[in-house]
Predict the structure.
Amino acid sequence: MTFDIVTIFPAMIEQPLAAGILGRAIDGGVIDVKVRDLRDFTTDRHRVVDDEPYGGGPGMVLKPEPIFRALDAIEAARGGPLTVIMTSPQGKRFTQDAARRLSGAAHIVLLCGRYEGIDDRVRERVTEELSIGDYVLTGGELAALVVLDAVARLVPGVVGDERSVAEDSFSRGLLDFPQYTRPAEFAALRVPDVLLSGNHAEIRRWRKREALSRTLSRRPDLLDAAELDDEEQEILRELREDGTARQRADG
Ligand code: JD8
């Protein structure tokens, strides 16, 4: 899968992508990330990408011409119409379902805004507008990296062990169970005995209970969509009964 990222801050994209799982996937040719400096698509001596907003107001707006030229260049290189994703606070919420859907594409363009935003005529070329959440960033680069990271890890071969993709919390619709590693006791803090027991049936059940109880207390909204097996439904019923019993006892 290939990602073209259009930005005025190429270093903000390049540095994080050089590290870790995505860095290895790029080195190995499993994914290709082409970072395009928007200033390379200007035609004036000073490589200006922004201008004042029509109608007045604070800040600057990204000019349309460099963006249209960048998209034209990418389209010519690809030889066909593009999927162009713009990150913006006005976008539809980016979810794991959207990541799954986008991971099926051979190529996507991620367009990063800055300042007060992008000249609205660019929408003409935008297939999809996505927001990563309800808080305000200074620009689209970090949001584009979030989208890229979540999509790329679903591309076969990017994550070494496919089981960690299949079992991740949003695939199952529940939060993760707690993880521990050696030593079994550290500063008087012990790893739960069940994990040292070697009883794999018990371990599986304990992990289900932990995942369900965390989800119930921290993200009960996730339980509506979670696909629970019979054992998980039984554990959840027990956890809810415990909760209501405690509430009753507390008055
Ligand atoms: C792109 C400029 C800065 C600052 C208006 C638009 C996404 N979840 C999200 N929060 N913020 C963004 C985001 C912010 C951006 C741009 C994405 C381009 N800004 C803001 C306040 C004034 N502009 C985002 N996805």
Notes: The CA atoms of residues 212 and 236 lie 6 Å apart. Residues 87-89, 91, 113-114, 116-117, 131-133, 135-140, 143 surround JD8 (CB under 6 Å). The radius of gyration is 23 Å.
